[in-house]
Specification:
The chain contains ten helices and 14 strands. The protein is an alpha/beta fold. It folds into two domains: about 20-260, Type I PLP-dependent aspartate aminotransferase-like (Major domain) (Aspartate Aminotransferase, domain 2, 3-Layer(aba) Sandwich), CATH 3.40.640; about 260-360, Aspartate Aminotransferase, domain 1. The strands form four sheets. Strands 2-10-9-8-5-3-4 form a seven-stranded mixed β-sheet, sandwiched between helices. A three-stranded antiparallel β-sheet has the order 11-12-14. Strands 1-13 form a two-stranded parallel sheet. Helix 2 packs across helix 7 (about 240-260). The longest helix has 22 residues, at about 260-280. The mean pLDDT is about 100. It binds 4'-deoxy-4'-aminopyridoxal-5'-phosphate (PMP). 4'-deoxy-4'-aminopyridoxal-5'-phosphate (PMP) binds near residues 77, 149, 153 and 176.
């Protein structure tokens, strides 16, 4: 596919080419049904098979057993910021949060509207340059849950350890690094992620709950916002985002075909090394914004010596087929998003471009 760019957007972003080709090939006549899967009823056998397979693939790839319930919800990860406190907070309950950047702050703020919250740790005073260490987490023993954001899409930081919250259930917003590395997902009692980075197109949010979380849901919420409704109806209480789920199923099949998470991690390691090696080779030119031990493998953020050079970098990169490199509007600079589907070749070629750009400017 000669005209495809290397897409470094932070999400929605690039999808595996094989997945796109399958979608294209199956689009008009899905497996001999004489219609597209987007025209299928969500109660039809052909859609049911997609839905069921997708649930099984999520558990298989992530190494989760049947004590976990997999849900496909809508409203993005942002809706989870509200549903979590709606379901788990209330009289005598407190949600503990670690503030590691924009999305973590939003989750905390939303919960604070609904219930009682406490900040277990924050790196706000250091411009979110690092991930707080285990020793810095102040988690009240009676907290109802601990909420962390495993990868900070805007600030370019990522947890490289899994916090130990003691007996407090742990919830992870994994929107921007889910399934990017081998990871013990079983350390979490709840996991959620908007699909539009590593899992598929925008429109579906993957939500995974362990039974203890479902047991903790409080009564009195609107039925649609009660996790138990969706668990009981296998995410078919209302019409699910069928097409997005179909593509997510193909993405999970693709992950398996690559060799699962160990193989994906290996490629992701090479990709981030290619870029960070260039940052470390020219530290006065490409100034990394995250502390080294907190650097994200998914969203790599750095500044150039001036905003004019940053603009030039972005526009020359674009002309060469590297798109989506502009940092989030709230922080500026450069952000290189290296999600699973971005090929190794893309990261290597961008690293070469960085070298050439530095020498020429
Ligand atoms: N959490 C994280 C870590 C994110 O990166 C994002 C979106 N970029 C969100 C939450 C919000 O997701 P959504 O747009 O699906 O609501």
């Amino acid at each position: 596919m000669g005209n495809r760019v290397f897409n470094f957007n932070a999400g929605p972003c690039t999808l595996p080419l094989d997945v796109l080709k399958t979608v294209q090939a199956e689009f008009l006549d899905y497996k001999g049904t004489g219609m597209s899967i987007i025209e299928s009823s969500h109660r039809a056998a052909e859609y049911d098979a997609v839905h069921t397979q997708c649930v099984a693939l999520v558990k298989e790839v992530m190494g989760l057993d049947d004590s976990y319930t997999v849900l496909f919800l809508t409203g993005g990860a942002s809706t989870q910021f509200a549903m979590i406190p709606m379901n788990f907070l209330g009289e005598g309950k407190v949600g503990a949060y670690v503030d590691t950047g924009t999305w973590a702050s939003k989750a905390f703020k939303e919960a604070s509207i609904i219930g009682k919250t406490v900040m277990a740790a924050s790196s706000k005073d250091a411009a979110y340059k690092f991930i707080p260490k285990q020793a810095d987490l102040k988690i009240p023993a009676d907290a109802t849950y601990l909420h962390i954001t495993t990868n900070n899409t805007i600030k370019g930081t990522q947890y490289h350890y899994i916090p130990n919250p003691g007996s407090v259930p742990m919830i992870g917003d994994m929107s921007s690094d889910i399934c990017s590395r081998t990871f013990d997902f079983r350390k979490f009692d709840m996991i959620y992620a908007g699909a539009q980075k590593n899992l598929g197109p925008a429109g579906v949010t993957l939500v995974i709950l362990k039974q203890n979380m479902l047991d903790m849901c409080r009564d009195g919420n609107p039925v649609i916002f009660d996790y138990r409704t969706h668990a009981k109806e296998n995410s078919l209480y209302n019409t699910p985002p069928c097409f997005a789920i179909y593509i997510m199923k193909l993405v999970f099949e693709w992950m398996k075909s690559q060799g699962g998470l160990p193989a994906i991690e290996e490629v992701n390691r090479k990709k981030k090394d290619a870029i960070y090696n260039m940052v470390d080779k020219y530290p006065d030119y490409y100034k990394g914004t995250a502390e080294k031990d907190s650097r994200s493998w998914m969203n790599l953020t750095f500044r150039l010596p001036s905003e004019d050079l940053e603009k030039k970098f972005i526009s020359e990169a674009k002309a060469k087929g590297f798109i989506g490199l502009k940092g989030h509007r709230s922080v500026g600079g450069i952000r290189v998003s290296l999600y699973n589907a971005l090929p190794l070749e893309g990261a290597q070629k961008l690293a070469q471009f960085m070298e050439d750009f530095k020498k020429a400017n």
